[in-house]
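This section describes the prediction task in plain terms. A model, or a person checking by hand, is given the sequence of a single protein chain and must write out its three-dimensional structure as a string of tokens. No templates, partner chains or ligands are provided. The sample shown here is typical of the held-out split.
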Amino acid sequence: MDSIDLEVLKTAISWSQSGAYTLLVTVVRTWGSAPRPVGSMMCIREDGHVRGSISGGCIEDDLIRQVRSGEYRATTPQTMTYGISADEAHRFGLPCGGTLQIVLEYVSEQSQLPALLQAVSRQGLMTRELDLASGAITLTPGAHATSLSFDEQRLVTVHGPRYRLIIVGAAQLSRYVASMAKSLDYEVIVCDPREEYLDEWDIDGVQLSREMPDDLILALELDAHSAVLTLTHDPKLDDMALLEALKSPAFYVGAIGSRANNAKRRERLALFDITDAEIDRLHGPVGMYLGARTPPEIAISILAEMTAIRNGVPVLQTHALRPQPVALEASACALS
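The expected answer:
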């Protein structure tokens, strides 16, 4: 669950517990060029205050008007559709042909939002099912095949933990990767047992660990919302971390270094209790080929590859198609 969703749900809980009439609004269907994707959420308080977004602001304005005026005060779930006609699309500022359907849910103790957030905070996946006829909520551990389904009678949403990025190595490149990953809403943990490397770290919100990387990875119990990136060039640190990460469900495991160094790394990994299929999961040389040379550029290339894989988009610029980037590889080695 990203920080925007967390913010919306936490705010909805706070407003409801204060006694204010509060609605949770979820986009459940879109047609054409809808401004926000399915699953987008916002909450509205009775005085018109909002948190989150379901459009560019146009639909929010209409809902604010209805709630603030008292025109809308339903306590059972309702559906609304915006943008069916050309006139409505123009009125609500939707893109040409854009239509979206939303579910409006009155927030109360019955909504079970605190229990949902508590489960997610423990790195758990939770399925939340809303019965539109009664407003009853069912929470169950685990996830369905899709993150949201809606059949007019039931709204089923899947909520998971924030994505985590474990960076092994605390040198200069790690600083840029950590800073950019935070802006992409990752929970960032930087691990480096070398005493001299972590002392100067001062990036707010980044967790620091002096454990051995393999011990930390085992302790974190990585899941499919986790990524591991090794940036030290020290086999004693990188290889041991990779051995544990590649056996885990982590969606991304990457290691910096040239193609030659990564080939040697794969040979070393093969000497341990790890399968060829697990070794094949390793992304190395790490990152999409962008012609990157500076630390910020290399960080962008790494996070671009992570983002594509996280979103299920094929990475077209494969390592096999790269030109021989001698300067890049030398630069990357020097920076990490």
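For orientation: The CA atoms of residues 49 and 64 lie 8 Å apart.
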